[in-house]
């Protein structure tokens, strides 16, 4: 056995001596520059590309095998122009021979490249200019990767790239990405589990979106070839981005650890920490596979930030709100699932100012996808987010026209549901609110819409269509059992009515804003009121006072406070161009019946009604009436005039009609007397 070993040792020593002698001869008597054409021809045969070596080629044998090449260019693929695909000003590589020969261990002293330029391109058909240079995987190569060996290994003392430029252009999308001033420094890289520092920096420019900036990277890299593992610890990216917002924006991305398994094609990250646009985001990412379609799950936390500040960074003017502090605070957490089709957020929790919401949200990643959501909130005061009243608006009672958000609705594809414990709009408080949303093709339907409203219920179906030249709005709404006192107080700041109200409203109109739509409204409406009072007017007193005036008598003393009670009141009508016309008003009071006809202008909220009162023979309600009054009123139909603002109309006997009717009666009596005298 010992003899055999000695023979083998002799053979090895002899081989090394011959190799070294041959290397010395080559080094002393041959110039590597003489082989430029041979190298270029070999590349041409293998790739079909032109290789041009303009700089010198130098070769050193001791103590390392070192090769240095000067200015070199590699031609582009066919159909991608004459510009070189790749070039560099200088590249060098040193290699220790003996470990590579005897231990199958690759020991590289240094790998350096200066002024590297890569021009990567994709044409309009989707063909790129680099795939032909990448060898296809084969079963043999895969088997070779799996064999390994106890004597193999990788050892690189350093890798340095200086002042590199990489250009990527896509003719199909029109996008161009330029990375320049790129520098990379990697310390000693081995496959024995030792960590190596990595430092990199670059500038980037993205067109046509105009985004640019600088990026610096620091990390510790661990490489284990036999296990197929790459680990990056203390990963940190610092940079500044210009074009993302209206001013340069700092960016910071960090992770304690990123582990890549090339054997299993998986990535495992310790929490990923991102700071951008005054926002701080932490993502706890589950291990995922990078083979095939990307599917990533993560728990995401977005710390509290100001939407107004973020909008300012984007040079977007934050909307003016009635409450200047609205939109000042947002935070979020969710379990996110990223798939090729969508980003899905489950167990979503959002805090907007003083309101909290939970639920789920799906953001599509394809043109055919829908935004989907289901959110449940505690309460929200919508008044905070409404536009503030302009100067003089409050006094004039006029609000600025509310524009139909055509640009938002037209492209929107969404379906979902909101639920709120309480929502406040104006002085109206909606409770147990449920809102369904379905939008596609410029047609938005809000249905169902329901809520508890002042002891009663509200249900609605709202449709907005912006697909045509002029936006249109249609309403189909109902209220039932609503406390009239609370509704009047909330809508008109009036506290002079009581009772319950029910109604239905089927209306449609077109226009660019709500004012224009109001003027165009067509449809029908109906209202029913029960068991209430109207304070401020005593119809019975007004009738007696008008009678006294006609008779030239002293008017009776009024009962205070003045009010009129009713057991029921109904009205319906047709709406045309924003005006309700009705001829079926009916009200039943304890002492009379009212009928009427007229118009209600829904645009300026005014009423103009002619009514008739018929006093009933109910003495128990007319205790202070004289027999003459009772006889006259129960025999007559008394006209009333209701006019003025809808919130506080004037209700008065129509004296003009009373006088006219009185004169007509007297003339009629006089005519009868004359005729009687002629025939007597």
Task: Write up what this structure looks like.
The structure is a single chain. The chain is an alpha+beta fold and about 675 residues long. Among the domains are: about 1-30; about 520-670, no CATH class. Helix content is about 20%, strand content about 50%. The chain contains twelve helices and 38 strands. The chain has a 38-stranded mixed beta sheet that branches. A hairpin with a 6-residue loop joins strand 15 (about 230-240) and strand 16. The longest helix has 28 residues, at about 1-30. The relative contact order is 0.03. Mean pLDDT is about 80; it is low at about 1-25, about 140-150 and about 395.
Total of DSSP H or I helical runs spanning 4+ residues: 12
Strand count: 38
Shape: elongated
Structural class: alpha+beta
Rg is: 44 Å
The chain-level mean pLDDT equals 81
**Assembly of the depicted chains:** single chain
Summarize the amount of helix as a percent range. 10-25%
- N- to C-terminal distance: 169 Å
Low-confidence stretches: 1-23, 138-151, 393-397
Beta-strand percentage range: over 45%
Could you give a short account of the major beta sheet? 38 strands, mixed
């Amino acid at each position: 056995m010992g003899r055999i070993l000695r023979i083998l040792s002799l053979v090895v020593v002899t081989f090394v001596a011959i190799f070294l002698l041959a290397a010395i001869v080559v080094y002393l008597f041959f110039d590597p520059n003489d082989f430029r054409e041979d190298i270029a021809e070999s590349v041409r045969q293998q790739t079909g590309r032109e290789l041009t070596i303009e700089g010198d080629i130098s070769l050193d044998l001791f103590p390392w095998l070192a090769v240095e090449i000067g200015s070199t260019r590699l031609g582009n693929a066919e159909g991608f122009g004459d510009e070189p695909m790749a070039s560099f000003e200088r590249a060098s590589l040193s290699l220790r021979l003996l470990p590579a020969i005897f231990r199958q261990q690759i020991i590289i002293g240094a790998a350096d490249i200066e002024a590297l330029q890569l021009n990567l391109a994709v044409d309009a058909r989707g063909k790129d200019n680099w795939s032909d240079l990448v060898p296809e995987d084969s079963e043999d190569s895969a088997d070779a990767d799996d064999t390994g060996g106890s004597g193999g290994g990788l050892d690189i003392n350093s890798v340095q790239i200086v002042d590199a430029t990489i250009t990527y252009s896509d003719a199909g999308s029109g996008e161009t990405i330029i990375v320049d001033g790129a520098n990379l420094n990697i310390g000693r890289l081995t496959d024995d589990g030792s960590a190596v520092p990595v430092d990199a920096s670059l500038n980037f420019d993205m067109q046509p979106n105009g985004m640019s900036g600088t990026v610096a990277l620091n990390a510790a890299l661990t490489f284990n070839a036999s296990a197929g593992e790459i680990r990056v610890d203390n990963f940190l990216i610092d940079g500044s981005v210009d074009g993302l917002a209206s001013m340069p924006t700092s960016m910071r991305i960090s992770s304690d650890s990123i582990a890549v398994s090339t054997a299993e094609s998986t990535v495992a990250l310790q929490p990923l920490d991102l700071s951008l646009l005054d926002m701080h985001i932490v993502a706890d990412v589950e291990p995922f596979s990078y083979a095939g379609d990307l599917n990533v799950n993560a728990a995401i936390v977005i710390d509290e930030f100001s939407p107004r500040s973020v909008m300012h960074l984007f040079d977007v003017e934050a909307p003016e709100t009635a409450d200047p502090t609205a939109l000042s605070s947002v935070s979020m957490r969710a379990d996110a699932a990223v798939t090729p089709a969508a980003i899905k957020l489950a167990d979503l929790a959002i805090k907007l100012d003083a309101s909290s919401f939970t639920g789920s949200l799906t953001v599509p990643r394809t043109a055919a996808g829908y935004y989907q959501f289901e959110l449940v909130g505690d309460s929200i005061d919508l008044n905070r987010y409404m536009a503030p009243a302009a100067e003089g608006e409050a006094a004039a009672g006029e609000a600025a026209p509310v524009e139909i958000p055509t640009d938002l609705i037209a492209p929107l594809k969404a379906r979902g549901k909101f639920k709120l414990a309480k929502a406040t709009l104006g002085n109206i408080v909606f409770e147990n609110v449920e809102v369904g949303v379905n939008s596609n093709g410029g047609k938005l339907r809000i249905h169902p819409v329901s809520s508890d409203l002042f002891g009663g219920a509200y249900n609605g179906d709202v449709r907005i269509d912006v697909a045509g030249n002029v936006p249109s709005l249609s309403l189909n709404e109902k209220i039932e059992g609503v406390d009239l006192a609370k509704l009047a107080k909330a809508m008109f700041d009036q506290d002079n009515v009581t009772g319950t109200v029910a109604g239905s409203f089927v209306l449609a109109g077109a226009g660019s804003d709500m004012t224009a739509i109001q003027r165009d409204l067509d449809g029908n409406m109906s209202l029913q009121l029960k068991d209430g009072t109207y304070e401020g007017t005593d119809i019975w007193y007004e009738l007696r006072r008008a009678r006294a005036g006609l008779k030239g008598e002293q008017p009776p003393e009024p009962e205070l406070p003045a009010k009129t009670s009713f057991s029921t009141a109904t009205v319906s009508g047709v709406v045309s161009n924003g005006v309700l016309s009705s001829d079926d008003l009916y009200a039943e009071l304890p002492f009379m019946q009212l009928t009427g006809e007229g118009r209600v202008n829904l645009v300026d909220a005014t009423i103009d009604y002619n009514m008739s009162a018929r006093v009933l023979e109910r003495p128990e309600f007319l205790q202070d009436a004289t027999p003459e009054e009772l006889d006259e009123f129960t025999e007559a139909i008394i006209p009333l005039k209701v006019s003025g603002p809808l919130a506080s109309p004037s209700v008065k006997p129509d004296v003009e009609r009373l006088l006219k009717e009185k004169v007509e009666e007297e003339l009629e009596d006089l005519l009868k007397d004359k005729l009687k005298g002629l025939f007597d």
